[in-house]
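PROTEIN FOLDING TASK:
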Amino acid sequence: MKLFVISLFVWCSIFNQFDFVCCQCYPAVYCELLEQLDNKLSEESDLVSKLEPLFSLPREGHENLRGGVILSTWVESFKKAVTISYIHAEDMCKKRVSTVANNNLCDRLCAVLTAYKEDIVKIGRYYYDIQLVYSVEPRYYDIEGFESALNEFKRKKFERESEINNQLESMKTTYHQLVNEVNAKIDQSVIVQRQYLLQVKLFKKELETLFLQTKKIDGEKLYDTAQLDALNTALIALRGKQLELATCLQKLLSDIQAYNDQRINWAGILLDTTLPPRPSNKLGVMDI
């Protein structure tokens, strides 16, 4: 049991690698649960050491997603990289040859540019939400009914070690299935993320090219229909890749939610109760 307490400390310490740390007055749910379970077992029992890996996702997948860089730094770098010259693009719409077709096209372009800017923030939020699962354990009040169930667990004698051991193989199988789903989505997100960054570079290059092609009409530099069409084509390609990445990250978060639901279910099994899953818009981590 003493060896477990040491390993538990090391295990819990990995959750301090984000920009904020869970307040010490709110114990980490799964660390606390496994510690309380370990207190009830004999020195010879290895049940907790077998259960411990099931309550966190392997960090390799997350490291692949952020390229080994601290996530807060990586996200800011990513957001900067994908931020295009809105002023230049919007300026093209303002300094256009005025025709009905050009006016309508520029209205659509401005709407797409607005959506693009909004989704940069949304995608950044997705990355932070993913980081939460890997870096911060939920607190008592993040899981409905956990605190009262744990208090009841502390009062009772634990006589279900054999029962839990019999479920371990099934739990491990489920865990590996969930982890494989998460890691597959991470791999896909990394691929699309790179394609998106490449598309941003191509778009910026197209803006530069179009700027050099500006023609003077009545003494003023204006963009004609051909240039606006080129801008529209480049923006459609850029926006498409951005939406593809957003979709990948949404699917990744959905798989992470499935893992969190299962993790809560396992906690309920250990506590000999049923804990409700988190709402679909929550990750089972902590509300911020």
